[in-house]
Amino acid sequence: VQLVQSGGGLVQPGGSLRLSCAASGFTFSTSAMTWARQVPGKRLEWVSSIYSDGSTYYTDPVKGRFTISRDNEKNTVYLQMNSLKPEDTAVYYCYADPLFKTRLWGQGTQVTVAS
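Request: output the structure for the sequence above.
Response:
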C-alpha cells in the first residue's frame, strides 16, 4: 500500500510543472485524492482534491492555474501547475482517503519557482 510521487523540480516564474502520484495496494477509483503543500516553518496547506465522482476543488490562490485530474486505469492522480509563482514554492504531498481506511501519504516532492 503506497503512494509514489514524481515530477517537481525547479522552474522559472510563469512556467509549468506536472506532479504525478501513483497508487497501489488499495481501491484507487473510490478514493478521494488530494494535493497539499508545505513551506518550511509553516503549516500544511490544502491545495486541491478530486473525488471518485470526478468533482474537483481548489484553494483560491491556485484557481485557474492548477488542474487536478485522475486516471483510474493507471491508478494515478496528477496536478498540472501552470503560471507558477515564487509563492508556489513548497514541498508538495499527495494523499489518499480510501473508503473505511486510514489516510495514505506520498513521500513529498519539492517544487521551486525561481529565476
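The two ends are 38 Å apart (CA to CA).
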